[in-house]
Amino acid sequence: MDNGQVNRGSGDRMGGANLPALRGHNEALLLDLLRGAGPAGLGRSELAARTGLTPQAVSKITARLGAEGLVAEAGRAASTGGKPRTLLRLVPEARYAVGVHLDRDELRAVRVDLTGRVVAEVGGPLDFGAGPEVAVQVVEAAVREVARGAGAGAGPVALVGVGVAAPGPLDHWAGVMGRVTGFPEWEGFALREVLEGRVGVPVVLDKDTNAGAAAAAAGFGAGGFGAGFGSGSGAAVYVHVGTGLGAGLWLGGGVYRGARSAAGEFGHQVLRLDGPACRCGGRGCAEVLCLGAVARGDLHEAARILGEGVANLVALLDVDRVWLGGRVVAAAPDVFVAGVRGVLGGRLAPGVAPRVAPRVAPPVGPVVELAEVGVAEGAAELALASLFGRAG
Question: Is the pTM of this model over 0.70?
């Protein structure tokens, strides 16, 4: 249907999901600090020192957050001569977010707690070419399934929101799909608005590569939020090889999307003039060359082509880290990591070489490593971003 309109259906809006809005920046700032502190927590004096807020303001804010179930006591710190300090921690299970990876041929949805730990997931095939109406029904069903609480007869849990990661191009700010390569019927479809009407909670729409960058930068592992770039100034790129080839940019402490949400169209840089035709209409694009090599079973050549594209990006942006992800990489991780490192080693300036984590001081090249988790987790992180005062 035109203009993003679909039948909303007769399903009920998701109960228990319309939560009172938090009161502003300071609440989000404290929640973000508590998230980073983990189960050990932080004392009110530490929170005041790190935020510049007065102890009285911190006490009032944390009392409100405690009343909303978001913050709880984590015990007491050892005494240094006075009264032992009460430590506060984030309550992971107080709220949840759902992340959906809407790929060209499959869908994966996860529910994460406030630390980013996956507590439920579903997945299955999806025909992206069947059109937006069919896809919306599949996404809605997946969101409802993962948002259902444990136990017989359990209702939906309290959701902060839903993040949907889809193939680009798309308009992140408007929540509208663009002319996805090979799927022109998606152009102009207001996916965010339609899904919000179906599930009744805020929805964030972004490119799959941007979601991958958000997850990698947050440092997610099996246990949730970890020691990634976070809100720091590190520069990095997430490169995704799956049904397409793309990149998500992490610059200046957040996902860099560009003025029109068009940044990261990595797969359509031309590597071979007059090369094979690409489905974008160009010729010799990195995507058609890399995926063509994958289709032939020549993974070493695919890794070399990917490395050439990554080397161009590294030379342009001088990033600190390159994360590799997507199903093609996951099927042969050693081949792709080694291949990209090998090309970078030959392309970087003399004395500069790609390195292996942990990070060491310059002058060395960027870390090249596997992304630890998938795009769906990153989509959930984007849905959580506003709760922690981040742009996502």
Answer: yes
